[in-house]
Amino acid sequence: MNRQRSFIGFIVAGAIALLVIAIAGFYWFFAKSPANLIGSTSQPGAAIFVSKLSPVMVSLLANPDRLQALEREEELSKLKTSLFAKSGIDYKQDIQPWLGNEITLAITTLDIDRDLENGQQPGYLLALSTQQPDKSREFVELLFSKRALAGANLAVEQYKGVKLISDNSQPEQDLLAGAAVGEDFVLFANDPKVLRDAINNVQAPDLNLTSSPEYQKATKQLPKGGLAVAFLNLPIVAKWQGLELPEQLYNSQIISLVLNPKGLLAETTFLTSSEIVPPSPPLSKPVGALQYIPESAGLAISGSNLSNLGDSDVAKLWRQATATIYGSKEDVVSRLAKPLADVQKRWGINFPEDIFSWVQREYAIALLPEEQTTPHWIFVVEKSEGVEQGVARLDAIASSNGLSINLLTIDKQKISAWTELTTVTKKSDVKEGASFSIETKVRGLHTTLGNYEIFTSDLETMDEILTTKDNSLIDNPNFKDSIAAIPSPNQGYIYLDWTKSQNLLERQVPILKLVEVLGKPFFNNLRSLTVSSYGTDTRSLKGGVFFKLHNS
């Protein structure tokens, strides 16, 4: 385990940080020279070294030095210095002259020695492309000579025409193996066996990732000019996590990052051998329900037809993904959707049965964040055959929970309110004791506007909808720019205004604070993100996340 941990600290963590900072830093670079910051190749060349049984491979397809605008923040310089500080290597002098346009990091095997008794020791492979083979070979020799001077015992072997160098370090020191392979790549690993396997994969093409039918199908989904790409073999990822998935529809996933004049689009495709059907017909334009969502919303979800959501392939993907990441659906609800779970518990309702079942046309859901209180919510539904009965069912549920249904009027608009009477104790100067007053608390409201039924959590939110009709989210320039970057037709949008929702999200997802630290330049400039699914292939589910940044 020491060998695995030390390698992560020396190489893997540095490579991941390079990817994070490179992607985060595109904001400044893009403003200066958008044409230059694109992937140099359509897919990773280092895939020939990676086993087709690898759970994950991540590649940066551009030289990190092309992000020199980051130098004004000194983020990239600090990373380069810290990454190689322990080795005595100077990035600018020893690496920059030969480093090419690809950095690939892969987990090549779940257990290097396949011995369960000593625990899992995954194999890590880092591939750096080179544009000057002689200089990159000199670098490998220099790196290991410095390690030898520091006390490491070197081992050198010729394996199928390739010189492999590794050290037999003490347990508390870093263990490293490296080789210059051919004219294109320098490889590093946390064990010589990982390097030998990588060479075998090249010389026996049926072993490497490029021969995998799943990988071949996935790479056909890649857009041109991607800045970075990641491929995941989902069944092996689940095995890596020690999970047996109760439901597994999707076999692999590929993710690419592409620059857009307005921001960054992270596009992903999930592939399956089964026939899949979208949960609802694709939409060629934003749903009309968004006209009733104020632009002050921090989160907005829109689309059509929730009635079959539970049996859709999107829902199956969610169940597979949550089981893979958290181990159970319950963990996801408790960690990410606690307010939603609380609403169901407090009201005694089941969302799929009591609400989703009658939403067959357009809908929009929104949260209006509040600093100190639970976010205000809005739910807009287009009228259809079952909406009237659905509203009546909610009224009945409210009544069964002890709420009264009262009619109110706001700006000449009739509104049904679910109210609760409560007593308030007041101190009294009279000897007889305390006095009491009765207050009416609104627990929810609904009304009809045009062809839509609108539900809100409170009077203030309903008043905002009725009195600020010209300031809806659908007219917000930031929202317009974000959805314009999403391919059309699509299945609708999940829109998150980061500046308005950051505090709320951090409370619900504490690990997000750690992610923000790692990608500080990016999150400091993040304005909003928009998620959507699209595509017409019946054997894949395609979607994207568009990140809009300030001043973009």
Can you describe this structure?
- The chain has 552 residues and is an alpha+beta fold.
- It has helices spanning 2-32, 75-83, 91-95, 133-149, 192-203, 213-219, 234-240, 313-326, 329-336, 338-347, 351-354, 387-400, 459-467, 477-484, 498-508, 512-518, 520-525; strands spanning 56-60, 99-109, 123-130, 154-159, 162-167, 177-181, 185-189, 228-233, 252-260, 263-271, 299-304, 362-368, 376-382, 404-410, 413-426, 435-449, 452-456, 493-497, 526-534, 540-549.
- It has a 20-stranded antiparallel β-sheet, sandwiched between helices.
- The radius of gyration is 28 Å and the shape is elongated.
Task: Kindly summarize this structure in a few lines.
By secondary structure, the chain is of the alpha+beta class.
Give a topology summary.
Blueprint: H1 2-32, E1 56-60, H2 75-83, H3 91-95, E2 99-109, E3 123-130, H4 133-149, E4 154-159, E5 162-167, E6 177-181, E7 185-189, H5 192-203, H6 213-219, E8 228-233, H7 234-240, E9 252-260, E10 263-271, E11 299-304, H8 313-326, H9 329-336, H10 338-347, H11 351-354, E12 362-368, E13 376-382, H12 387-400, E14 404-410, E15 413-426, E16 435-449, E17 452-456, H13 459-467, H14 477-484, E18 493-497, H15 498-508, H16 512-518, H17 520-525, E19 526-534, E20 540-549
Antiparallel strand pairs: 1-2, 1-8, 2-3, 3-7, 4-5, 5-6, 6-7, 8-9, 9-10, 10-20, 11-12, 11-18, 12-13, 13-17, 14-15, 15-16, 16-17, 18-19, 19-20
Helix pairs in contact: 1-2
Keywords:
single chain; 552 residues; alpha+beta; 20-stranded antiparallel β-sheet; 20 strands; 32% helix; disordered N terminus
